[in-house]
UniProtKB/TrEMBL annotation:
UniProt record similarity statement: Belongs to the CWC15 family.
RNA-binding is among the record's keywords: no
CC annotations in GO: catalytic step 2 spliceosome
GO biological process: mRNA cis splicing, via spliceosome
Organism this protein belongs to: Thyridium curvatum
Highest taxon of the lineage: Eukaryota
Protein name as catalogued: Uncharacterized protein
Biased composition range(s): Acidic residues: 118-144
Length: 764
């Protein structure tokens, strides 16, 4: 029984082992040895007269004896002449009788003996040469010994390196065999370790929290699987969809392949894994991705896509999945746009990644990796987006708001309020700078091609410091050029938004002013920019010149057409640069989506210019070549049949072939203002609207339609437009040409519905 709780003055004792006497360290003797004076410390021996010359000669003799291997003379040797071969003149050292002479007589004798020492300098030089030869021989021997030692060290290191290589190869072979034997996670469940909670797929977690009623058992309700909440029906629906997809693959009706622009062939070489190891296999819903496929997708992303938008700083797939699974799957989806293993990978990821995005966005604040995933889906969006139905604006707003919550606008990665145990959100200053710059770029690009004002006040002092080189993080040249152009476009869009508030038109003088400012900005940039950087500058200039098509109605025709052809020349130069970049490094296959939208704007301007009566003197083959080049650039941006790039190219191609049968038209600048609220993208919408009206005016009228519909006699639209010579004008030919139109795109995107009496006459 212990007695530790009882008060006592007796110290605690461990059983019967009593301690011995203890002494403090400072009570012990510090010095236990007697010290003696040494030479030079003021002893009795220091007061005696020393013969320094004799000591020096004795030391030299001992040194040379040691160097040549001879015997070392004793201290009290009486004949130093016989024990040394020094070149100096030997001095007769006095015998035991000389010890008795006084110091003054000895000093005078030494001075007389050393009076003629300068006469023997030549003899000393000869002796020194002999000594130097001996020293050189010794140095050569030492060099040879060092060379042999160096060769021995090199040989040992080479043997060690070969041994390590053999061990590494054996380990890799063993790991490869183990992966082959145990690589299927469906057959070897114990080896399939995925670091995910069992309820990661649940949207609403911890639903049982707060139910403190006594007598009632707490439980967790999985709303996706419980029959009471409709989860059972969702699972049945997903299972049915998978069965339908498998049936389509069996009968050869899988997802349509992009025949216009086939993806680049996948390299058969083995991928280069990060840190030399294969990533862990991962699963999304019911599909498993092997480690080799994941490593290949990550490698292709950082080789082909990353340089155009380098916001992802984490290249290890396993670490990326641990930090943010949504970024992991976003990278796989972007890489699968061009390097999918089969035709089902990209549709599966397109369907499965958005729920992961919204599930991550439901728990603010988002991490930097989740923000990067949102920005990637804006730069390379889903293949199911349309001109109006585009979620990029929502992703952009979420990303920008999350940047403000994390304090990334300050350029610092760690904020004190986010380092608490509840959040633990931190990143480096480099990650914060790249993410904040990417959010500003995407915000401006998406706002430009969708045609909406920016939803946040971006491009702050941090962006200016990054562009001026005052920050600790330094961007690549291309990323800096894109950021600088985005900042300029942001200022332009804000000014144009304010100018379009009441008048719905923009004065050309305002555009002239910004063109001069942009020319100065180009001069301040680096003198030698790459072709890719020149393409970015031309794209920014074209976005500015697109506002020429929102000119006031009272503007005369001459400045209108001059401004139009200014934009026409910029569009033509942009198309040629895009084709050159694509032929060199498949630029259009990997470029972000906003590049495709800029090329679509350029194609619309080229078609308007080619159809203008002012280009009648230009041969038709030349105009046709310009239009076909513009359409081909949009085709190269297409990923899969039916995506927005494919639809845009098909619509422009069909419109151009249809317009070749018609008389040249005059570009009507007064109707553009109806879409002025869509800012720079108003021209694209207006071109498609004019297309719709022209096709409607050329449809063959029926008896019922002519009776019920009012005529436009006396107006320009009611006049019959002449056809060019040699073009058939019968109704059957017109109906056959109209059959090739992309009616689904028109009806879906631009709300075009046919009358009941016209629809049966078209075999579509």
């Amino acid at each position: 029984m212990t007695t530790a709780h009882r008060p006592t003055f007796d110290p605690a004792r461990g059983k019967d082992a009593l301690r011995g006497p203890a002494y403090h360290q400072r009570l012990q003797a510090a010095h236990t040895k007697l010290k003696f004076r040494k030479a030079g410390q003021g002893g009795d021996g220091d007061r005696e007269v020393r013969d320094l010359r004799a000591e020096l000669l004795q030391a030299e003799a001992a040194h040379k004896a040691k160097l040549h291997g001879g015997p070392i003379p004793d201290d009290d040797s009486e004949a130093p002449e016989s024990s040394t071969n020094a070149s100096k003149r030997p001095l007769e050292i006095a015998n035991h009788e000389a010890d008795e002479e006084d110091a003054e007589a000895k000093r005078r004798r030494i001075l007389e003996e050393t009076r003629d020492i300068d006469a023997d300098d030549s003899e000393e030089d000869d002796d020194d040469d002999d000594d130097s030869e001996d020293d050189s021989d010794d140095d050569e021997d030492e060099t040879a010994e060092l060379q042999r030692e160096l060769e021995k060290i090199k040989r040992e290191r080479a043997e060690k390196r070969e041994r390590e290589e053999r061990e590494r190869a054996a380990a890799e072979q063993e790991e490869k065999e183990r992966d082959i034997a145990l690589g299927n996670p469906l057959l070897n469940k114990p080896d399939f370790n995925i670091k995910r909670r069992w309820d990661d797929d649940v949207v609403f977690k911890n639903q049982a929290r707060g139910t403190d009623d006594k007598g009632k058992k707490k439980e967790f309700i999985n709303s996706l699987l419980d029959r009471r909440y409709g989860g059972h029906q969702d699972l049945k629906l997903e299972e049915l969809q998978r069965e339908v997809l498998s049936i389509k693959e069996a009968v050869g009706k899988s997802v349509a392949t992009n025949l216009m622009n086939p993806s680049p062939p996948t390299s058969t070489s083995s991928p280069h894994f990060v840190n030399g190891r294969v990533p862990q296999p991962r699963a999304l819903k019911s599909r498993v991705f092997s480690g080799e496929d994941i490593g290949l997708y990550f490698q292709r992303y950082f080789e082909c896509f990353h340089d155009y938008f380098p916001i992802v700083r984490l290249q290890d797939p396993d670490k990326c999945y641990e930090k943010a699974p949504v970024l992991f799957w976003a990278i796989l989806m972007v890489s699968a746009r061009r390097f999918a293993k089969d035709s089902t990978v990209l549709p599966f990821l397109t369907e499965s990644v958005p729920p992961e995005i919204w599930s991550a966005a439901a728990v603010p604040p988002l991490s930097v990796e989740a923000i990067n995933a949102l920005l990637l889906l804006c730069a390379w969006p889903l293949t199911t987006i349309r001109f109006i139905a585009d979620p990029s604006a929502h992703y952009m707003s979420l990303a920008m708001t999350s940047c403000y919550l994390l304090g990334l606008q300050s350029g610092r990665g760690e904020q004190p309020e986010l380092l608490r145990p509840n959040y633990q959100i931190r990143c480096t200053d480099e990650e914060a700078a790249y993410t904040w710059a990417g959010a500003n770029i995407i915000t401006q690009k998406v706002s430009t091609y969708i045609g909406i004002p920016t939803t946040s006040t971006s491009f702050n002092q941090t962006i200016e410091e990054l562009l001026d080189g005052k920050a600790s993080t330094q961007f690549p040249t291309h990323y800096s050029v894109v950021l600088e152009c985005a900042r300029f476009s942001n200022r332009v869009s804000k000014t144009m938004c304010a100018a379009l508030e009441g008048v719905e038109s923009i004065s050309p003088h305002l555009i002239y002013m910004y063109e001069e400012e942009f020319a100065k900005l180009q001069g301040l940039m680096q003198p030698e920019l790459s072709e890719l950087d020149q393409f970015v500058l031309q794209s920014t200039l074209l976005e500015l010149q697109s506002y020429y098509f929102t000119a006031p109605q009272d503007l005369t025709a001459e400045p209108k057409m001059r401004n139009i052809f200014k934009a026409f020349n910029t569009s033509q130069s942009l198309i040629q640069q895009a084709l050159k970049l694509h032929s060199d490094k498949l630029f259009l296959a990997y470029a972000p989506h906003y590049v495709c939208r800029t090329l679509l704007l350029a194609a619309c301007i080229i078609i308007l210019g080619a159809l203008s009566p002012d280009m009648r003197d230009t041969p038709l083959p030349s105009r046709n070549g310009l239009v076909q080049d513009a359409i081909s650039t949009i085709k190269h941006c297409s990923v899969i049949g039916g995506d927005i790039s494919w639809r845009g190219a098909k619509m422009l191609e069909t419109y151009w072939s249809f317009c070749q049968m018609q008389a040249p038209i005059k570009v009507d600048m007064t109707r553009i203002s109806q879409f002025s609220h869509r800012l720079g993208t108003s021209l694209v919408f207006e071109c498609l609207r004019q297309w719709k009206r022209r096709v409607e005016s050329t449809l063959p009228p029926t008896s019922s339609s002519t009776k019920d519909q009012p005529t436009n006699e006396g107006t320009e639209e009611g006049l019959t437009k002449p056809y060019p010579a040699g073009v058939p004008t019968d109704e059957n030919t017109a109906e056959q040409d109209i059959q090739f139109f992309d009616w689904d795109a028109l009806m879906t995107e631009f709300d075009w519905s046919f009358m009941p009496d016209i629809t049966p006459s078209l075999n579509v």
